[in-house]
Amino acid sequence: MTPQEAATLAKVEVLADLEPVVHELMVVHEAKRVLWFPSELLAPPPDTDPDGYLRELRGRADGISLPARVALALNLLTEEGLPHFHRLLATYLGGDTFWSKWTNLWTAEEDRHGAVLHDYMHDSRILDNPVLERMQFEYLRAGFEPSWDKDPYRVFIYTTLQERATQVSHSNTGKLAGKYEPTIGTVLSNVAKEEARHYTFYRTIFKEVLARDPNTALASAAEIMPSIDMPGVNMPHFREMADVIWRAGIYGPRDYLAIVEEQIRYWAIETLDGLDEIGKKAQEKIMAIPKRLERVAGAMETRSRAKTFSFPVTFAREFGM
Ligand SMILES: [Fe+2]
Ligand SMILES: [Fe+2]
Questions:
Q1: Domain range holding 133?
Q2: DSSP letter string, 215-235
Q3: Cα–ligand 2 centroid distance for 17 (angstroms)
Q4: What does pTM read for this prediction?
Q5: Averaged in consecutive runs of 10 residues, what is the pLDDT profile of the chain (321 residues)?
Q6: How far, in Å, from the CA of 313 to the mean position of ligand 2?
Q7: What is the CATH number of the domain that holds 152?
């Protein structure tokens, strides 16, 4: 066994010890969950003519701005990356355990996020759907092999940050697009609430990991927390789309900074004691992250100039920001 394999095995043992916690969290999660379905959220109100309803929805959706459409496209694609995320979790959280029960439940919940957004795009026609579907195809077939996928601890840290980031992004996109078309506002607020509940699960799990194995857990956190790449990062136009989303005030480095600070507080990283050399170094590294992120955000803001954008998925219509 290589030292890396031995380290992974030790982590998997910690996860096995967490099974009762997973079970308990699942019970709480399901008790709080409102199980909605895409066709229910998108259904015309009772006694409404479905064709007329669809025409009116399209009329309203026509007003959704191009930056909001770009955000919707990127959010949708991120959700449709579910096979990548499922695989990352299923690698360590398999077998006949509460872990795999959680992974399956989580996957079933997440699957509705992509579905409801996809159905909405079909109904509203605010994106060039054939272009969108080809992007999704390329995104899935490109795979997602982050450097951290061999470390189950890092998987939880990534998932914690990612759930929170998607929550913020869906929620702000919903506020922006919902001004013109309230249905998408309702859809995204439901999706965002679910991301918030997933976030609660993963951050609680990592807190438990920290309590059991603080030094190794901190070392993993110090690797992930400086920045997270979305799995779509290699997609054509990804960086420009992210730029639009930042300029629209939906999601950017300051939001990521707030998310990191939130985890530092919740995991009480600053006050963890009794650490060994590795743990102390990781703790110091993590505590220095917010300052660095602050600098990155500030530099981006000073450098920023007005810019014109155009994306095939938004019918190549030009817009300036
Ligand atoms: Fe999601
Ligand atoms: Fe989620």
A1: 3-320
A2: HHHHHHHHHHTT----GGGGS
A3: 24
A4: 0.95
A5: 84 89 94 94 94 96 98 96 88 81 95 98 98 94 82 91 97 97 97 97 96 96 91 84 97 97 98 96 98 96 96 98 96
A6: 24
A7: 1.10.620.20
